[in-house]
Amino acid sequence: MIEIITAKPKHIPILLSFWEALSSHLPESVFPSNQAAQKERLQSLAEHVTSSSASVALLAISSVRNKRKGEQTKVGSRNLDEAVIGCIAGHIHDRPEFDTSPLGILYNLWVSAEFRRQGVGRTLVLALENQLREKGAKALQVAWRHSERENISSEAAAAFWQRLGYLHYESIAGKV
């Protein structure tokens, strides 16, 4: 059974561990960054999404993970990090030049490897979409990159998002 909860400031260490895992599995960015600066940005982002009314981060909690370990975890207990199997974040972005503003931007979707292809990512996305719509989003947007280390191609990521109704509309390139 999966439970989706809204991340609070006390969950920042959990978010950081998932986002660091996500970052470590992505290809090098066009925009170089040292590890300390990356950690600082992730910390700032986690603080923002857990405290801003225009942002939200969600955690997927599984009772299955703890049953495998012979434990029972309640949300708010100190063993919560062992039960978290995925996360996603998003925020409202005002783009007055678009008729569909404000936009809900989704990012940092990550599901633990042992729980992939079981509907956890879909459940997180749908829950976040609902929360962003409640915050006023008229449209939703997401970007993705492939992960060679996790054997997740950009085609597989595109197929995941397309099954959820997202349409590819642009490619982004960078240069330093």
From TrEMBL:
GO terms for molecular function: acyltransferase activity, transferring groups other than amino-acyl groups. Pfam families: Acetyltransf_1. Residues 2-176 form the N-acetyltransferase domain. This is N-acetyltransferase domain-containing protein. It comes from Marinibactrum halimedae. The lineage of its organism: Bacteria, Pseudomonadati, Pseudomonadota, Gammaproteobacteria, Cellvibrionales.
